[in-house]
Write a structure and sequence with these properties.
375 residues; alpha+beta; Glycosyltransferase; four-stranded antiparallel sheet; globular
């Protein structure tokens, strides 16, 4: 389990976290209960502008619906009407995105609810599994577990490549698009497998998780620094993302199954290098993309990467000062009275003013890690 701090946390850190959590519950969550909710479609809009108006909808993604299902499932018992909203999102996931003919779930529908991008991608299926595991843990309804099982079955039968890895994307009828495996969907699949194991014993899922991480070590870890690349080793134009190193580190370090694995040892080794090259020491800003050598490729600061670094720090030894510094940075640079800044550029100027429906998932998982740390 996640490590606790060695002594009681400083009152300043506890007070700062309470303030950030209140902002989440009183400002961010209500955005998705009110202006961010399309009542007719029973789906979240993809994004709100700085004035809390929905951006004109071009599409709705199954992944965004699943992330919001996780969000409201995690708030059951804390926020009024969270259970009703989770139930509506679960129904919408099935109604709008499930492919009755070929199985699995479409990537997106258009603004009128018609299938848009009908490909089947692992990222979407991983989030459906992740959300259903958390939701089932709260409600224990047989229908939710049956969708969880259907997601597991389709991932194993359709996406698996037989070597522990999984195709990133397939056509609607499961014909290969020859994308091969990619880091980000595989990370979220590992996260979804861990979520499943946290709510039930499942030896097949545990075996798949261990095989996945063994294959990641073999195919994605850069030998020199231990960092986990975005594409398999040997792919043209490869890079790594500090946010993903921190996200993987948290998953591995917090899991009794994965802690001590070779992949965990690699990410443990990569942590200092990633901090040194990918985190600005004065501001705590996390860069978006680095070359395998550690040179900056994209210095954009994204709120999700800030949240993942902060969450990872809660599992580092003697980290209280760093946790407090990064929580302060998140609070001052990314959160504001009307919501949050999605991105800042290299100079620190706000470069995206919209607020996507997918971001509260990162904040919710970060704050859950902080709550565990402060406990």
């Amino acid at each position: 389990m996640p490590h606790a701090p060695r002594s009681a946390p400083q009152p300043e850190l506890t007070a700062l976290f309470a303030s950030v959590q209140q902002h989440f519950l009183n400002v961010i969550v209500p955005l998705w209960q009110g202006p961010g909710w399309n009542v007719d479609m029973a789906l979240p809009y993809e994004a709100l502008d700085a004035g809390h108006q929905p951006l004109p909808p071009q599409r709705y993604r199954a992944m965004a619906c699943a992330r919001q299902l996780y969000l409201f499932a995690s708030l059951i018992g804390q926020v009024p009407a969270a259970e009703e909203r989770a139930a509506a999102l679960f129904r919408s996931l099935q109604r709008h995105f499930h492919d009755a003919e070929h199985g699995g779930w479409f990537y997106s529908i258009d603004s009128h609810g018609k299938p848009l991008d009908q490909r089947k991608d692992l990222y979407t299926h991983a989030f459906i599994l992740f959300a259903c595991a958390h939701y089932w843990d709260k409600v224990r309804e047989p229908l939710v577990e049956s969708v969880l099982n259907a997601a597991l079955e389709v991932i194993a039968r359709r996406f698996a490549t037989g070597d522990g890895l999984y195709e990133a994307c397939l056509d609607r009828d499961w014909i290969t698009l020859e994308t091969g495996p990619l880091q980000n969907p595989l990370m979220h699949l590992a996260e979804a497998f861990l979520a499943t194991l946290s709510v039930r014993e499942d030896l097949a899922v545990q075996r798949a998780l261990v095989e996945l991480c063994t294959a990641m070590q073999k195919r994605f870890i850069h030998a020199q620094h231990g960092v986990l690349m975005e594409k398999p080793l040997g792919a043209v134009d490869n890079w790594f993302e500090p946010g993903h190193q921190f996200e993987w580190y948290f998953l591995l370090e917090s899991s009794d199954v994965l802690r001590g694995s070779k992949l965990h040892a690699s990410l443990e080794r990569a942590f200092a290098f990633t901090e040194q090259r990918g985190v600005e020491p004065q501001t705590g800003a996390v860069a978006a993309m680095l070359e395998p050598t550690g040179q900056t490729r994209d210095a954009t600061q994204r709120i999700w990467a800030q949240a993942e670094y902060l969450r990872a720090l809660t599992l580092r030894p003697d980290s209280e000062a760093a946790v407090q510094r990064q929580l302060q940075a998140l609070h001052q640079q990314f959160l504001h009275a009307g919501g949050w800044h999605e991105c800042r550029d290299e100079q620190g100027d706000v470069s995206r003013r919209d607020m996507p429906s997918t971001t509260p998932y990162h904040l919710a998982t970060c704050y859950a890690g902080l709550a565990e740390y402060l406990r």
